[in-house]
Amino acid sequence: MKNSDTKPKQRIHDRVSAANLMLEYSDGRRFYSEYLHNISLGGICLEVLKPIEPGARLTISLSTKPALKIEGDVKWTDKHKFRYRIGVQFVKVTPEQEFRLRQIIQSLFWEASQPQ
C-alpha cells in the first residue's frame, strides 16, 4: 500500500508513545483490538495486521479508566515490517473527550519520563 497524499508533513500536536495502551475499534463491520503506537490531542497511530483505506471512519475505545470512546478518520496507511501503521485523526471531539485525552497523554508522558 502506498502512502496517502494526505499524510501530514508537520504535526499540530505533539505525540506521546503509547505502546502499552490497548484500544478497540470498529469500522462499522467488525471489531478489532490493537495496541497504540502513539497518541496526541489530534489523533492516534496504531499498528494493525490488515491495512485500512484512508477515508474510513473508525469508532475507537481506549481501555482507560474510565474508557474513552471517540471517532476518527483514517488519514494514511503505511506498510511497516510485517504490519501496517495507520494514522487516525479524531473528529468531533467534545470538551469532555479533549479533557480525557489530555489526562491520558499527561499520564503516558509521566510514565515514559520515569527512570526504569
Write the layout of secondary structure elements.
Blueprint: E1 16-17, E2 22-26, E3 31-39, E4 43-48, E5 57-62, E6 68-80, E7 83-91, H1 95-113
Antiparallel strand pairs: 1-3, 2-3, 2-5, 3-4, 4-7, 5-6, 6-7
Structural summary, described in words:
A hairpin with a 4-residue loop joins β2 (22-26) and β3 (31-39). The model is unreliable at 1-5 (pLDDT under 50). The longest helix is centred in the last third of the chain and has 19 residues, at 95-113. A six-stranded antiparallel β-barrel has the order 2-3-4-7-6-5. The protein contains one helix and seven strands. It is of the alpha+beta class. It is 16% helix and 43% strand. It has one domain (16-113): Thrombin, subunit H, CATH 2.40.10.220. The chain has one helix spanning 95-113, and strands at 16-17, 22-26, 31-39, 43-48, 57-62, 68-80, 83-91. The radius of gyration is 14 Å and the shape is globular.
CATH H-level name... which superfamily? predicted glycosyltransferase like domains
- How helix-rich are the residues, as a percent range? 10-25%
Overall tally of structural domains? 1
Quote the distance from N terminus to C terminus.
Answer: 38 Å
DSSP helix count? Answer: 1
Radius of gyration: 14 Å
Mean pLDDT: 84
Largest sheet, strands/sense/barrel:
6 strands, antiparallel, barrel
Total DSSP E strands: 7
CATH class: Mainly Beta
Named CATH topology: Thrombin, subunit H
**In the CATH hierarchy, what is the architecture at level 2?**
Beta Barrel
Q: State the strand order across the main sheet.
A: 2-3-4-7-6-5
Order of SSEs: EEEEEEEH
In one word, what is the shape?
globular
> What portion of residues belong to β-strands?
35-45%
Low-confidence stretches: 1-5
